């Protein structure tokens, strides 16, 4: 598979003017999605709903001004909801307001840690985490989200402690009919509207339609204010400062580590996924993206906002809506700022059940995303890593789940014959065949755990050349390494060169990480 040079949109003021209309349109459509989703995420996290708007505003403005190229949307995300809710509960010892302020302090410090991650160029570490482990992490988050939101959707109180799943039958036995009706109608709109064949209707933003219908139903059914969204009269009244009095306590330090690591991992992987979706090569620097997220989290925590990341749902919508530059993120944040400042009374008419339906739908997407349907048939190895990650993440915590998934992946590679000396260090032979042509022969193994050493060797080659990566003398090539090689080839093509991957039984195709060599080559080269 060969990659040749691509042209990127200009990042100068001229380029910004050129794409102004496309970016404003995309920013507006993302704003319609972000408005209810941000409030729903905040409510599910134990934060005031307006905290989601504050976070999305900070993410939009900071993401555009600091983030560099890329089409990712910065804001609150479902992946951190369970973590934030747990922090509020544990740090506040049942006092929601105290837990909220103490969690804000944790977010501020976690943001500073992420800034350090970005300055140390640790963003690229997210590229080598096996895709199956990442999908398992997101699925575990989605299952937790679904279980919690079922209680809100039925109008019953969720238990403060796990196991959540055992309380679901009780929730349906004591449901509030009016609340449940609004929740089910909202969920039906989210599931059905994009599938309608009626011209014009299928392209309406489902979250916007959901809000309008739910507000009408809420008024018609006479929902009380305790079942509606609560917002302050003015956006400035929502600003809440963190409480740093316990930031050095054991639980706070643990949550600082969790927010910094889980948020960084999910953000980097989201940015990477959006780069693959983008129609133009307006690619994000993963280290710059991590630096931006850190600055955004520090600012969001200081004013009372949720933790933010490069969020995949809104980022995908941004790409599908035709965004061309990072300024689409800015316009979406600006629109949220205007509405938050002027339209708060309108937002307080939204039923909480509608937001719960939106989050439940988001949880379903995390549990069974489109990428998983591609990943699942690849091999039993991928399924094993996925299932182990889900199980451990649900029972022992998110980071434990990712660690278990990575551990299973390494054990499978060792069982398949990966030499211990090649677990973290790739054997690479580079030869200049002719002027402008380099042959790179990878020996023995190219797997996720030794990919960085392989990439470091590739980066010693000059740009603008023709590079052939020969994998014919490898015994093992895993999905993550092959996917990263294909991505590196695309990046190299953008510098004006050409890179070809050869030596596999079948050619590399999309998705790239679907060809794995597990048998020894005919004539293996010596180490």
TrEMBL record:
Domain of life: Bacteria
Membrane topology listed for this record: Multi-pass membrane protein
Sequence segments annotated as region (Disordered): 503-527
STAS domain segment(s): 435-508
Location(s) in or outside the cell: Membrane
Any one GO BP annotation for this protein: transmembrane transport
Regions that span the bilayer: 26-44, 50-68, 98-120, 132-151, 171-192, 204-222, 290-310, 330-347, 384-412
Pfam families: Sulfate_transp (PF00916)
Gene Ontology, cellular component aspect: membrane
Main location: membrane
Low complexity compositional bias, start-end: 511-520
Keywords, comma-separated and alphabetical: Membrane, Transmembrane, Transmembrane helix
Stated name of the protein: MFS superfamily sulfate permease-like transporter
Lineage: Bacteria, Pseudomonadati, Bacteroidota, Cytophagia, Cytophagales
